[in-house]
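Notes continue from the previous slide.

Worked example: a multi-chain complex. Inputs as given:
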Amino acid sequence: MAVVQLEGIHKVYGSGGNRVHALRGVDLKVERGEFVAIMGSSGSGKSTLMNLLGCLDRPTAGRYLLDGADVARMNADRQADLRNQKLGFVFQNFHLLSRTSALENVEMPMLYHPRIIPRKQLRKRAERALAQVGLAERADHHPNQLSGGQQQRVAIARALVNEPQILLADEPTGNLDTRTSLEIMTLFQELNDSGLTILIVTHEPDICDFTRRILTVKDGRISADKAVSKRMVARSQLEHFIKRAEAEAVEIPEPELPA
Amino acid sequence: MKSWIVLLIALRAIRRNLMRSLLTALGIIIGVAAVITMVSLGEGARAEVEAQVSRLGENVILVFPGSRSLGGVSIGGGSANTLTIEDAIAIREEIPEVIAASPEVRSQRQVIYGNRNWFTRIYGQSADYLQIRQWPLESGRMFDVDDVARATQVAVIGQTIVEELFEGTDPIGETIRVRGLPLTVIGVLDRKGMSLMGSVQDDIVIVPYTTGFQRISGRSHAMVINVQAFNSASMGIAEMKIRDLLRERHGLAPYQEDDFTVQTQEDVAAAATETSRVMTLLLASIAGVSMLVGGIGIMNIMLVSVTERTREIGIRMAIGAHGKHILLQFLVEAILLSVLGGVLGILGGMLATNLISEYAGWPAVLSEQAVILAFSISVAVGVTFGYFPAYKASKLDPIDALRHE
């Protein structure tokens, strides 16, 4: 059974003369374990689609079945519970709480879990999630003491800590340099290989090549849906990148002082 | 969601903005400290007044002359010459419930001893005045009925006079002069302290009223008659009988008003405690206003905080917080801040109370009620002023909140 199933989704913002028809009938099925890239220019409706998929917004018309349950009919609190347990979010701007340690940031989703998790286990699970993204030894660092890539990895650990069914990432590499982007994509590929369903929104074609399926959104509709024929492996790209960077590193000569 | 999780979230949020949180709580700290200090000082004043009232004497009734009108214009109570020495004697002799009565005359005079002088109050009183006032002697003796009858030139003096004129040497048997009139010191009074009106009662020279009226003040009418009733149960009857007797003696017709005023010790005490109670209330309400201001300060900061932390709220909602959780978080934050303010304020108030009573010498009684009240109010302030911002936060839309910069 598909983990995500959209049927005739419409989304209209505003009313009267200011109506914006952001989505005009989207049908989509995502099976468990897929790695999907959603591409599209700005204004294409991909962000709206992402908000709907993330249960942050409701469709104006159509059905959205998440893991078999109809999301559109749920109240706000039920939707919040879905975001908490079934979905993990990764944002372009990381969206970590400032002046809060990485560990506490990762603990946060567990605090809102309907099942009470004992304090000790809270910490243990957060540490495990941080270890999963390779940041075990930075647990006590605050976001401003971490690089962009590290912050994004904390955000991924936060998204994973409640063991969601789907990871939703909105431009996860948008604010990162090439090398860090490759690191994040390596992590995503590893997570996907272990069975996690991942949907990412991006406008970088390079990033799409690491996924398994590419959806193109245009004018509120899915205009293209194709499988990635030649999937790239982020880890080898990363190793290649590092090697080349080392080779290209040239010694900068001492500047000559004017006489 | 369990309460410890709500607490944990709120505590973490306060810790994240520790400086701002402390400044926010400052309003409450000052408010609570002010309430406690003010009420403690007020309570102290009340206790002091009560002590002074009891120092007034035992079962005392005071009879004041009535007001006098000049062409229909009153010139104030106690201004008329309506009480005579004979009135005092009659009260004493004819009313069985009365065991002592002293016609009082006061004059401000310079007292001279050797090359020293002191400006003080000279009281003419009867021999039983000290009994009425429950005022013991430190040394020597009080003048007796005989002294009064013969208008002897003797004086009983207070501690202030001993200090100012005699510098600690034994004054018994020495002669002081008032307007050239020599008075032999025969007794020294115990220290009495402040009166209800705040004057130093030890600054006093007491002479037989005969001497006082004729030789010192030159007046013929009593300024007050100090009366002592047999016991507290007989006060009411004594008061009534004094009124009847004086009306009869003054020949007042039934349609005429009293030309005197009778006041019992209880009346004086009630008036005095009422004054101090009003004062305490006034101080406490001023302090209460500062609590209100403190509460508005909390609301202000919480509102700013909600706006500033819109993104945080968005993040929390995105990862599964219900609106209710956000409401609780901000509400508990506000309550924690005001409770923190309350606790620090109580400590501050205790410290301030101690310092003031120590250095200014004002009596202060730390009031437990005030502590409990101030603390409850600070919690109430937290709930009241924290609710609106918290409600506002809980109604945010997660998408808008996440986009907020």
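Summary box: The mean pLDDT of chain A is 90. Residues 119 and 259 of chain A are 67 Å apart (CA to CA).
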